[in-house]
Amino acid sequence: MRRYQLMMKVLEQFGVEKERVRLEWISAAEGSKFAQTVKEFTDQLRELGPFKQKDEVAAGGEG
Amino acid sequence: MKQIVDRLRQEAARLLAAGDVAMVIGYAKGTDVARTTPYFATNEEEAQNLTWNPFCTNNLVKYLLDFRFEDTKLAVVVKGCDSKGINRLIYDRQFPRERVVVLGVPCGGLLDRSKVLATIDPGAELQSVEDLGQEFVVRTDHGEFTFAKEQYLLPKCAVCRNPNPVISDVLLGEELPVAEEEKSDTFDDIVEMEALDPAAKSAFWDRHFNRCLRCYACRNVCPACNCRECAFEQAVPGWQQEACWLSKKASVDNNYTFHLIRMFDVTGRCIDCGECERVCPVNIPLRKLYRKVIKDVQELFGDTTPGLNIGDGLPLTSYRKEDPEEFM
Lengths: 63, 328
Fold this sequence. Notes:
heterodimer; A: mainly alpha; flat; disordered C terminus; B: alpha/beta; 2 domains; 6-stranded mixed β-sheet; 3-stranded antiparallel β-sheet; 13 helices; 9 strands; about 15% strand; globular
């Protein structure tokens, strides 16, 4: 679990927003929870829109 | 500095003559005035070629790994920064403590070769170097030069936290004083980086990883990279032999994956010696990457820079009840 904590920090450093990564604990018997989580997450990602990384490189970027 | 060199040669000659060690790994004169080369002395005469000056940049600890499956005893010259690597290798059981004699050098900082060569003719013959605390006096056959440490030190040395070796069998000079407030790292460079917005961070790393040639020099020089078989160098990439999740092709995506994996692999083992950044042929600021992890691990789990103490825990393989569990 420590890896996940660190991973979040690392991805943040690479410019990946926190909202784009999620870890959930779902048992094989919890079908409806799984469906619900995936639905929530895809909705969230749709709202965020596509990951812009590539476009910014093409535009030269900064930093 | 002359005393250190004399002491080093004397000690190396003594160890080799007595048969205590089969080889002394140190530094010798390099191909120009501001360069030294790793040197492997195996007898008393060769021990006289050993040297020490502010151009001894290499971390020699890595060479121990070349001898890890033999049974010979070795001596190795270490600076404060490199010495952490010895602690790590011993604790990781990569090299047994009883097979290494650590010749520790209290280090007053290393000079930036490129800055020095702007002043001295590379062909000049280095005669001696004197460390005066705030500056180095470099004597050559082309004259005498003074380099203020403030201006000419390598970036990593300008903010050095441990000039004295953390482990040594023979200390080849006087321990250098370190002010209390300078003992712990403040990670100023990383704090600055963290303040950028996500798009700027992403653009920063894209720009750098775009150049990565995947030459693996950072891996080859790294004392924390000591796997016998590297995940990045298999006939068919991917541990499953079929799952090619990382191609050997150098592209931004693959380079991100490579650096991300290496970053996690050296977590808790990267001693922040800065060798990766020095050897990178395309100048990727790799230390920023690994120092970020050191800082995060310190904040999340309380572990300090790896190798400072022998027996420091491995942050990714231990667990405490107080660990954050935000997703549970």
